[in-house]
Specification:
Elements (H helix, E strand, L loop, with lengths): L4 E2 L2 E2 L1 E6 L2 E6 L4 H7 L23 E4 L4 E4 L10 E3 L3 H16 L15 H8 L15 E4 L3 E4 L8 H9 L6 E3 L6 E3 L16 H5 L5 E3 L3 H9 L4 E6 L2 H10 L8 H11 L3 E4 H21 L4 E4 L5 H7 L13 H8 L5 E7 L21 E4 H8 L39 H19 L10 E8 L2 E9 L1 H12 L6 E5 L13 H12 L23 H7 L9
Helix pairs in contact: 7-12, 7-15, 9-11, 9-13, 9-16
């Protein structure tokens, strides 16, 4: 929302909305002014933080009693305006618009992934729509993109939210609007699959979609079948960010779930072992510390990706930077390496869609990089199938990983094999681990500027910087600067604009509570700074266990 400032602060204008005197900031829209005064105007294409598109026309209002119809989402308030938001004519107009949408929309609400959480469904209920006029619909293609996302264009209402968040917020340009009139559609450029373009599978399009036109590929049934198979076992790990989604979706109180609650529930489902995700994050950080230390000596940089799904973006826009991308396995790949091949499968559970992408990639030996990567939303669907209360189950501690079936060759690049864990390497690993936690917890020293956080550290008397990007728009700023000659030691990229907690696979019940103020802009991130003005680096959780499990690969030296 734009505000015009005068000598005494923001200017305000007076207007009348449905015979109610309202004062609103100059530059705000009629939709915003109405909402602030308690008047609800229905809309489908509008989403706070996105540019107004005014394509659904549900929010049209009458202005100045002259029968002028204007979209409330794209019309600014002005002094003396007289606005009517609710009349029989407007009601019938909105009802007709929604009826036309429904006439070209499938009526399979009971099996739609957005059932009971669908904005079109809610509009139809509120407008009193009880029947459909037409039964024949134009055939529309169903896209399975990279075995990660499903785009059901028959359900698409062409509101353009997904295009706006992809183009204007993420700056990825993986989705676009094409053609006109009856043939108008939301598609990948040139009507290709998302897997053939720069899509990073962040899931932001899922989060803003008002219906069930785009959603993550559901692996619930495949996981349940694996858990029921007596010939195999399934081991897993989960991030703490899953807990907040479960609390919101299943009706538990805030901070009522502990890791041991979820561990107990997963074992009840049939999981054999539940490992702490922090163990694998620690291992990955150690591997990246070795690589980064070598690169610093060679005056080269390292780019670390939260998910391999971002590779398509680099190949499309920054092919020259591909050689800088770290090949050290991420946490979910290390979890898979800890499981015994075909007899023991792995399942990571995260509020993340992009990690599902890794479940369909193969390592050098032909095994999947991960067997299952479930989102928080999928786990919620599974828990809704069962009747136990997570908070009432006996607490179950997490398992401590051992060397077991790990393959050391998968831990990090061959160039770092045999390097000793020194204080310097450990310091670097702590800093890298710290950055990985910012993506999951959304906490950082001081604050971040335009989605970019910089952590300055001193290594061997030399000052270096570690950079972390929230969202691809922030990453583009650093990558463009690097292309113009700027030097960077380390860049870690998280595809979601505000960290993993608000990933595309998070519970919608949780996202509804944070979207209006948090989702589309970097929030203020604060932690204490010590008396020396330095950023405190926490110990790596499970650090000693990780080094002990790999003592032949991570010899410790002082």
């Amino acid at each position: 929302m734009m505000e015009h400032h005068g000598a005494n602060g923001p200017q305000r204008v007076n207007l009348v909305i449905d015979n109610i005197n309202v004062t609103a900031p100059a530059g705000s829209t009629i939709l915003e002014a109405a909402k602030s005064s308690g008047v609800t105007i229905p809309t489908l294409c509008n989403f706070k933080g996105l540019l107004p598109r005014a394509v659904c026309r549900l929010c049209v209002v009458e202005l100045d009693g002259a029968g002028r119809l204007k979209p409330a989402c794209a019309t600014e308030v002005y002094e003396g305006a007289k606005v009517v938001t609710n009349s029989l004519e407007l009601h019938n107009l909105r009802k007709t618009i929604v009826e036309l949408l429904l006439d070209n929309h499938p009526d399979d609400c009971l099996v739609c992934p957005r059932n009971l959480g669908c904005e079109l469904q809610t509009l139809a209920l509120n407008l009193g729509i009880t029947r459909l006029h037409f039964t024949e619909r134009a055939p529309v293609q169903l896209y399975h993109d990279g075995k990660t996302l499903v785009r059901d264009m028959e359900r698409c209402v062409k509101c353009g939210r997904c295009v706006s968040v992809c183009q204007n917020i993420l700056k990825v340009q993986a989705l676009t609007a094409s053609q006109r009139s009856w043939h108008y559609e939301i598609a990948a450029p040139f009507r290709t699959l998302l897997s053939q373009g720069p899509c990073v599978y962040c899931g932001s399009c899922i989060s803003v979609c008002p219906v069930g036109a785009i959603y993550e590929k559901d692996d619930c049934q495949a996981l349940l079948e694996a858990l029921d198979n007596e010939d195999i076992t399934v081991s897993g790990s989960f991030s703490r960010e899953v807990l907040v989604g479960l609390e919101a979706a299943l009706g538990y109180g805030q901070n009522s779930l502990k890791e041991e609650n979820l561990s107990a529930a997963l074992r009840r489902l049939g999981f054999t072992r539940i490992y702490p995700r922090e163990f694998f994050l620690s291992l990955s950080a150690l591997g990246e510390a070795f690589i980064l230390r070598e690169k610093i000596e060679k005056k080269e940089g390292v780019i670390s990706l939260c998910s391999l799904s971002i590779m398509g973006f680099f190949k499309e826009y920054y092919p020259n930077a591909v050689p800088l991308i770290s090949q050290v396995p991420r946490a979910q790949e290390l979890l898979a390496a800890a499981c015994n091949g075909e007899r023991e499968l792995s399942s990571s559970i995260l509020p993340c869609v992009s990690q599902k992408y890794a479940a369909h990639l193969l390592n050098n030996d032909g095994r999947p990089a991960a067997n299952f990567n479930l989102t928080t939303s999928e786990l919620i669907r599974i828990f809704k199938l069962i009747s136990f209360n997570l908070t009432e189950l006996p607490l179950s501690p997490l398992d401590i990983p051992t060397r077991g079936a790990f393959r050391a060759s998968e831990l990090k690049e061959d160039t770092s094999h045999g390097m000793v864990v020194t204080d310097e390497i450990l310091y670097l690993a702590k800093a890298i681990y710290f950055l990985s936690q910012l993506g999951e917890s959304g906490r950082a020293p001081g604050g971040i500027s335009e989605g970019i956080f910089t952590l300055p550290i001193s290594l061997g008397g030399k000052e270096i910087e570690l950079n972390m990007c929230f969202g691809m728009a922030a990453a583009i700023k650093l990558l463009d600067a690097m292309g113009k000659g700027a030097e960077f030691n380390y860049i870690k990229i998280f595809s979601c604009p505000n960290g993993c907690r608000q990933g595309g696979g998070q519970a919608r019940e949780y996202l509804k509570g944070v979207f209006p103020k948090d989702y589309l802009k970097p929030r203020e991130l604060i932690v204490p700074i010590d008396s020396y003005g330095l950023f405190p680096l926490p110990e790596l959780p499970w650090q000693k266990e990780a080094i002990a499990a790999f003592s032949d690969y991570f010899p410790v030296g002082r």
